[in-house]
Amino acid sequence: MKWTKKRLNNLFFVIGLAAVVIMMFTFDVSFVELWQHLKHAGYWLIPILGVWMIIYGLNALSWQCIIKSNSDEHEHVGWWRIYQLTITGYALNYATPVGGLGGEPYRIMELSRYMSRQHATSSVILYAMMHFFAHFWFWFLSIFIYLALAAAGNLPITRGIAITLGLIVVFCLIAFYVFSKGYKNGIVVKIIRWIGKIPGLKGWSTRFQEKHAESLKNIDTQIAALHHQDKRAFYTSLILEYLSRVVQSSEIFFMLLLFGIDGGGDFGGLCIIYLHSILILSFTTLFANLIGFLPMQLGVQEGGFVLSIAALGLSAALGIFVSIICRVREIIWIFIGLLLMKTNKQDAD
Fold this sequence. Notes:
mainly alpha
């Protein structure tokens, strides 16, 4: 059977739909308890869901910087289309294992309607790299937020915490080195070679490199060109991706306010609570990405929220509430992403 773009689109849609069903039946609480949590959230669900329109908007702008820098003059992709692909891509990422890589093939397939496949592939790979690169900066800078709050007497600093923070710093510095090499020399050829070291895949890796040697070399050249030739686009994209995580912390901030945790209610207290929200998100996403091999990271994200919130001296019940509401938000946005996937029927082959 020939896999046309229309059939592949339908396959991605079915995968996403199956993920929604699985997620709905894998909550660690009963539907009665789930309904109670939703009732507790009440009208706060509106800003919790709505803030993701801004987050995805920042992600789309970040990706647009890369696409513009990585395309020819006759290749044009409208911002609304990039916004749609951003939402749909992340919806598929939530639904797939191995760190959420399901959305990238879909993005390449759809983006290649507007530009050459090589430019589409390198743009998607560059954005995926930027997305992960910004993660490491978010985790790295969060260490200094924690230390500043600890110095102010707001958070504890024990020997165990100090060792953990030190390990995170080392982990991030190693990642910065790896990314710097990837941005300077390209990374696609190396990834294909690494795949060849997996038992059973050496033959496929060798054949793929021989068949697509020129294309792979060109894609790596385009990846290296972004950092070398268009530093403004590179750093703008990085800043936007970092800001998207700061904005994402608002989701947790709203839920802390819902539980009456407002730092006294004045401006200074609210700022402290927002910094706590950044730390909760940072440590949760670090934990989830370190153990991100499950579809939708089932159980990992929930455990991450409970541990990170408890580490800041807050109740485990709050951690469970935050994790459940975030899971509901994911389901809703996955469904929105699937709807967007099917609204562009004029693009189907």
